Amino acid sequence: xxxxxxxxxxxxxxxxxxxxxxxxxxxxxxxxxxxxxxxxxxxxxxxxxxxxxxxxxxxxxxxxxxxxxxxxxxxxxxxxxxxxxxxxxxxxxxxxxxxxxxxxxxxxxxxxxxxxxxxxxxxxxxxxxxxxxxxxxxxxxxxxxxxxxxxxxxxxxxxxxxxxxxxxxxxxxxxxxxxxxxxxxxxxxxxxxxxxxxxxxxxxxxxxxxxxxxxxxxx
Amino acid sequence: xxxxxxxxxxxxxxxxxxxxxxxxxxxxxxxxxxxxxxxxxxxxxxxxxxxxxxxxxxxxxxxxxxxxxxxxxxxxxxxxxxxxxxxxxxxxxxxxxxxxxxxxxxxxxxxxxxxxxxxxxxxxxxxxxxxxxxxxxxxxxxxxxxxxxxxxxxxxxxxxxxxxxxxxxxxxxxxxxxxxxxxxxxxxxxxxxxxxxxxxxxxxxxxxxxxxxxxxxxxxxxxxxxxxxxxxxxxxxxxxxxxxxxxxxxxxxxxxxxxxxxxxxxxxxxxxxxxxxxxxxxxxxxxxxxxxxxxxxxxxxxxxxxxxxxxxxxxxxxxxxxxxxxxxxxxxxxxxxxxxxxxxxxxxxxxxxxxxxxxxxxxxxxxxxxxxxxxxxxxxxxxxxxxxxxxxxxxxxxxxxxxxxxxxxxxxxxxxxxxxxxxxxxxxxxxxxxxxxxxxxxxxxxxxxxxxxxxxxxxxxxxxxxxxxxxxxxxxxxxxxxxxxxxxxxxxxxxxxxxxxxxxxxxxxxxxxxxxxxxxxxxxxxx
Lengths: 219, 527
Ligand SMILES: [Cu+2]
Description:
Chain A is mostly helical. Chain A has 6 helices and 2 strands; from the N terminus they run ββαααααα. In chain A, helix 3 runs antiparallel to helix 6 (about 190-215) and helix 5 packs antiparallel against helix 6 (about 190-215). The structure holds copper (II) ion.
């Protein structure tokens, strides 16, 4: 089968046999990626619905939970991710205009932003683990006012944990396209994987933009 | 139409490795076919065990606990590993590209990956049978699923992984339908099977993520005790039911819509008549898909949701009957003055219409708030959804096997045995499940491994029926395998069908079409 599917010889990409041309392949791939993003948003949507239901039921508890979060760290991370979305978009732009070297630097910067985000998240997590502000049966904070404060941290860790997993997956994907770009596999005619990873990264950023006010700024 | 030297997708490449690495949609369909049929055998044996245990009151050979486990695996295997992937992954994969004049699905690599993801999930699910067998039922209701000591986390992750495979398949089919139609193949000319698979794919993509997050939260609940579904921690177990049915009701249509697509193909082919109301049937698929998202509360009339919610859900549920009836009446109108031949696939199609009508009408009964309070969690419900899932989906699945077998493998099966299998399955099905309506109305609760004496005779009849169904399916299996070994060579178009897959050789070549087809008319140009 290798004769009529994606073959990459000397950096040149040929469109697969069931597509009319490269453009046809590109727009199809892009539609597939957007559909996948819809499923990602819906999956987080389930968590948001749960969050709203319990926030309505226990507003004081959520306010107390949020008071343990440092909004400055959250705001810093929001800033970092928005910046990384910009560098990601720049990376795609540079490939489109044939500046592959600049594109590599843009992708490296994006990766660095992702790493900074995760480092900040690491400090936030260790701080909470230290205080015993943990979900459910691991909750061990002695001075909680609300009776079921553990639930707030259940939401906190589920939502940021699932999001953090997506950041890590995104970083792995960016590394993948970065390596391929440095090998010279992309040019202004073929850059579908970069475009796809870019869309994924923007959606991950977008979800954080919703998580930040919900978790850090309530109450 | 034959291509050079009798080459086709089966013999073009040799060796097992060429199958497990193939990106050809037809070969991937065969991989799915073998896996799904294997799981069907396992799930079917579970069903026979359940019926055998219920042959007489009191424990026969299962304890209460082992009965719960057999019941759970029967449900989980049949839902997640047979009926949901069944028609889309086998026949959708094989015939969607052929139906629209494409060489393959949009993302062949993703297609193969979906199969591996599915098999990984299935392996996880089966692995729990050898560790600690789960006993929650396929619905994993909290709070029991949080408390039971069995391998719920593994099973839930298995369902999550298989859900991911379902999403990827759906996504692939949507893009294929949008982007890969041959010149002239407008959306108004695609076969109704494609409309059905397309509507199903939309449901797979939009509903499955909710199941995903629900199952992840359930796993988190067990591992960390996050409390979202646990009343002891301020959570709400009914929320789990809302989340679960928000996926699992649309999932019912993931199971039945593809079957309806097959029936449209069969009815028009064996009536030798252009289908009546093409547009109505096509849009009713989309209509069913849309309404199905707003009816989940009909599973929860007795869960303590508000009465107003109950009334609204009741009304919306009855609304689903409208597009469903539109399909039924259009099929009937197609039969009217058609040149009907009763080939075995047609028998299955007519069997579908008869059984699905009963399943549908009892569905309306269950949608009625007052009646459901009486019927809830009785055998009436069990009979109802088996009429839809088995009488509907499985009848269509077997019909599809007979209809497309000559195209898929280039061999004719024995028509006599095909008709015989229909008699066994159709009669056996009614003998098994019709008494269960009566049992339910008499108040026999579902999911119990024992019952009181007045229910005995009807249970005995039901168990005998299950043996007839079993024999019927073995005749199907025997007939199809026999055809592979000894069957006559199939012509390109044995049924005189008009859709594109019948214009190419049987079995098709690797590239499907020797010349890219150009479409100038609708799919069912009979008369
Ligand atoms: Cu339902």
